[in-house]
Amino acid sequence: MTIADEEKLGQPLLDRVAEYLPAKGQELVRSALQFATESHAGQVRKTGDPVITHPLAAAEAIAELQLDAATIAGALLHDVQEDCDVDNTEIEKRFGPEVALMVEGVTKLGQISGQAADTDVPDQRMQAENLRKMFLAMAQDLRVVIIKLADRLHNMRTLWGLERDDQVRIARETMEIYAPLAARLGIWEIKWQLEDLAFRHLHPETYKRVAQMLDSKRGAREQHVKEVKKVLEKELSKNGVQAEVQGRAKHIYSIYEKMEKYAGEGRSVDEIYDLLAVRVLVASEGDCYKALGVVHGLWRPLPGTFDDYIAMPKESMYQSLHTTVMALQTQPLEVQIRTHEMHHSAEYGIASHWRYKEGSKRDSLYEERLAWIRQLMDWQREISQAEEWVEAIKTDVFQDQVFVFTPRGEIKDMPSGATPLDFAYRIHTDLGHLCVGAKVNGKLVSLNYPLKNGDVIEILTSKSSKGPSRDWMNQNLGYLRTSHGREKVRQWFKRQERAENIARGKEMLEREMARLGTSLPEMQAELLRIFKFEDNEDFYLRVGYGEISTQHVANKIASLIQETEEVPEVKAPAERTYTSNIRVLGTGDLLTRLSRCCNPVPGDEIIGYVTRGEGVSVHRRDCPNVLHEDETERLIAVEWGQRGQMYPVAVHIEAWDRVGLLRDVATLVAEEAVNMVGVHTQERDGEDGHITIFMTLETTGVEQLSRMLNRLEAIRGVLSVSRRGGGGARSKS
């Protein structure tokens, strides 16, 4: 084939761009076509076709999307660097920096893909690096990836020219990455073609069977849709709705997915509702809802089949009304209703925002569509392993989404099956780390509750939270369903260095023991016994990186410390029994009761169980009934509240004297709702400005005391805070 013959191949492309591009844009495309044809002259693909047919097909796909001239030129030239040894500076000189940058970006993506096939490097790792490069290019200029999608589309159409192993590898990558990517960008026209082509090569026999099934009933379906269109157009016109009604072809892979879903539910193919489908295109959003009323007035809608993607667009910003009705001879019929503008956006997605926009500013909808790409770039910087990042994309970006609301009414899209904890980490890392509970639609739920469309999520936090729990990493417990959330927790634990954490943990314990009026050597054996550790360093490590908090330690040894104090017996009235207030974390007052199976007491680590009609029953965490509970979603975080007794405690504060010091101390004690029954100060001999404050405080126990001592130590000028001596317990008046 001569160059002249190859140039003729490009005439349909030139005719297509002449329909919408200005003269200057047409000239750029014509020049790029000529240069690409000359550069690829004499080169032949594995299919036997001239190489120019490939960039030409990619450019034609992009012209169908009505993208700008620079993108079409980039598609025409995307292989000249690699296949023809044309330097990028030559491309920039001839066609400008914008085209050169796109060609450079697509070339780099192609090099990564080629390496995956030509080296012994594991395919998963190369796929991961390929994805990283692609999303980096996408963040810089989305048109690079649109060219790559068009490139992949033609490669899939000519996949028959490759060996079977290569066909399967490329088809699987297309199904896992490129088709979902086209869907996420809203480019439906490319998405469904990629899916059908990949399905054809991955499962040829199944593809043939589904195609034959559809062909066998094609005539009857087309006749039925024709009758539906006639009736619907007449009814819409009668109600003053100007509309265009189209029959809508179903694609083979989407039918296969429906068949698999229905087979799993024990239903037949004949029950698939949307084998028959029509689309109604109207002028305005108001006409969409008016047309919906006409459709529902004409035919009975099937329950649970209505979706309003106009009020709540999909993550790709897709907008339409979907409903399924029993039309004519009681045949299920899917009806989509949208404006002409929504239809163009649905077919061409984010590519539609370049239509007639050469030189114009990007609109707000375009920026909104790019927000998730920028989010991916943030993840890319945080996740060190490329394979983990790929898994995050597959689970968090490319699977089905649910749409939920923040308490302020902002819409957030989350992967299907995501939990409130996933939601917290999506909003902000610290929100996830501090999360202790969640409310959905105003009701308290477990942290592994699966979110549903329309849920309003409120995350409950605690500043005293020790951070993420190890349980959150256990996928069997279902607290985190997104790779993004699990990676945030994993990073939190990874950041804690072993040697540093051991030293920090020992220091924290020494300080806590001193505050509680004892010492670490004195309590070491008991601590190891209580927490079931054989090695001091392992215990210090857990304290150092937050798995065991000093508050937890104080709770555990509270009874031991209080036993050493001289506590006179106080005879309680016969008619009264000891009671404790339990606080359900993140909520107001709830009915709580102590369970009789394990009889928890203040100082025990506890957990709540949401009963049916009797509020929350409180158990020890090691209670067999809790450990063997099947309905784990009914377990809820609780803590001890105020107790029925107050304990006088002597506290010594070493500090540098300053104006307002005693006022600051008294204010903090009051904020903690602690009663200060005595206080005096004493200057230290020979130490100018150094004083000791002696206080007697009434607290509910060691837990409250530990928290308060931590806060006192943070006051400006305070050097150390400790507990000294002991006092008798007395009844709270």
What would a concise description of this structure say?
A hairpin with a 2-residue loop joins β9 (435-440) and β10 (443-445).
Mean pLDDT: 76
Largest beta-sheet details: 6 strands, mixed
Portion in beta strands: 15-25%
Low-confidence stretches: 111-122, 355-362, 379-386, 563-580, 726-733
Span between termini: 103 Å
CATH topology of the largest domain: Hypothetical protein af1432
How many domain units? Answer: 6
CATH superfamily of the largest domain: Hypothetical protein af1432
Give the CATH architecture of the largest domain.
Orthogonal Bundle
Which structural class fits the helix and strand makeup? alpha+beta
Radius of gyration based on Cα positions: 34 Å
What are its keywords?
733 residues, alpha+beta, Hypothetical protein af1432, Beta Polymerase, domain 2, Ubiquitin-like (UB roll), 6-stranded mixed sheet, 22 strands, 49% helix, elongated
Overview of this protein structure:
The protein is α+β, with helices and mostly antiparallel strands and about 725 residues long. It has six domains: about 200 residues, Orthogonal Bundle (Hypothetical protein af1432), CATH 1.10.3210.10; about 140 residues, Beta Polymerase, domain 2 (2-Layer Sandwich); about 130 residues, Roll (Ubiquitin-like (UB roll)), CATH 3.10.20; about 70 residues, no CATH class; about 60 residues, no CATH class; about 90 residues, Alpha-Beta Plaits, CATH 3.30.70.260. About 50% of the residues lie in helices and about 15% in strands. Helix 2 packs parallel to helix 4, helix 9 packs across helix 10 and helix 13 packs across helix 15. The chain starts with a helix and ends with a strand.
